[in-house]
Write a sequence for this structure.
């Protein structure tokens, strides 16, 4: 799908629900006017890797698609957690894709200019720890030349890499786009600045949204490294101390901020790994509201929204989103959910 095709999808919509449960249905262009001076908006500036690699399983000679899904270590760009599929492409639903050829530890994969070895299976025939052979520059260069963006059947036309980069994309460490950031543009950022609304970024290696297997999906999200810069930590702490709200652009920002947050809501600059699950019962220490895509019950991202609002509120806005034709997935419409003060708050994220 080209950028031109994406731009023809019509005006984006925004469904908002505040802390009192009041729901509004507005054009997403009103996003620039929804926050108050002193609030701080935090977005994920990770750029998206072309993380789908087609090639051959050498032992069997059969075709294979590898989707890089997570870093084994943020310090080692040659080793990944990956999903393997058999013949096919994104035009087929992930749930219907053929299984990969039987994979064993030590198997070699030829992925265009890249050679990789399966280090081990991770409790599922599709999920492997993978190591690319060669120097760092050759591995990253090979991924850049041979890879394609991970794509699902709801977007029929092939995506170019720039289609999955938000306007603030910087360091390429994500496996799928931090798609809530598609709602941002320079007009909105300029309007926030003029109104005294802060804006800051962090980098979070957003992982995959679907494995195609319901049991394996229960293991999502995988551990995801993040980096909170000094200036962002300072901005969050200042806004919190002065009574401003922290608005997270997307679930990855919530994961990073809450993983770094102390009991008093302050955070510190750090490189870390978001490994806890956020959901019903999680006490949110840092984030006051989330701007996210339209997620429906049963999706992994929806579980995180349960930390912001109770079942009745989420059911209501999900029903409205469906009845009013809101678009789901990464190029769809948006929801803004403020944290309800009486939402369950008994457990931490770890």
């Amino acid at each position: 799908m080209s950028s031109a095709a994406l731009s023809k999808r019509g005006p984006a919509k925004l469904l908002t629900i505040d802390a009192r449960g009041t729901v509004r249905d507005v054009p997403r262009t009103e996003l620039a006017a929804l926050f108050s001076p002193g609030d701080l908006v935090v977005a994920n500036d990770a750029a998206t890797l072309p993380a789908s690699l087609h090639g051959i399983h050498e032992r069997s000679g059969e075709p294979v698609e590898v989707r890089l899904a997570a870093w084994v270590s943020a310090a080692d760009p040659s080793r990944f957690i990956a999903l393997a599929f058999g013949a096919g492409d994104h035009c087929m639903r992930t749930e219907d894709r053929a299984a990969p050829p039987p994979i064993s530890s030590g198997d070699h994969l030829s992925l265009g200019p890249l050679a990789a070895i399966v280090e081990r299976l991770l409790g599922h025939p599709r999920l492997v720890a993978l190591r690319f052979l060669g120097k760092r520059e050759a591995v990253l260069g090979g991924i850049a030349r041979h890879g394609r963006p991970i794509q699902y059947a709801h977007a029929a036309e092939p995506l170019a890499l720039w289609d999955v980069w938000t306007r603030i994309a910087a360091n390429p460490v994500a496996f799928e786009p931090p798609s809530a950031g598609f709602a941002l543009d320079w007009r909105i950022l300029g309007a926030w600045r003029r109104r005294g609304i802060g804006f800051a970024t962090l980098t979070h290696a957003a992982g995959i949204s679907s494995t195609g297997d319901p049991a394996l999906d229960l293991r999502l999200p995988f551990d995801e490294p993040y980096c909170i810069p000094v200036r962002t930590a300072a901005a969050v702490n200042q806004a919190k101390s002065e009574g401003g709200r922290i608005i997270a652009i997307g679930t990855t920002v919530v994961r990073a901020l809450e993983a770094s947050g102390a009991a008093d809501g302050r955070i510190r600059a750090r490189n870390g790994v978001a490994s806890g699950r956020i959901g019903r019962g999680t006490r949110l220490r840092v984030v006051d509201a989330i701007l996210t895509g339209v997620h429906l019950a049963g999706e992994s991202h929806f579980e995180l929204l349960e930390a912001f609002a109770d079942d009745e509120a989420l059911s209501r806005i999900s029903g409205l989103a469906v009845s009013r034709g809101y678009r789901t997935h990464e190029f769809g419409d948006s929801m803004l959910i403020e944290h309800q003060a009486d939402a369950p708050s008994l457990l931490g994220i770890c």
Summary: Helices lie at 3-7, 136-146, 186-194, 214-217, 230-241, 251-260, 300-305, 311-323. The chain has a mean pLDDT of 90. The longest strand covers residues 114-124. The chain has eight helices and 17 strands.
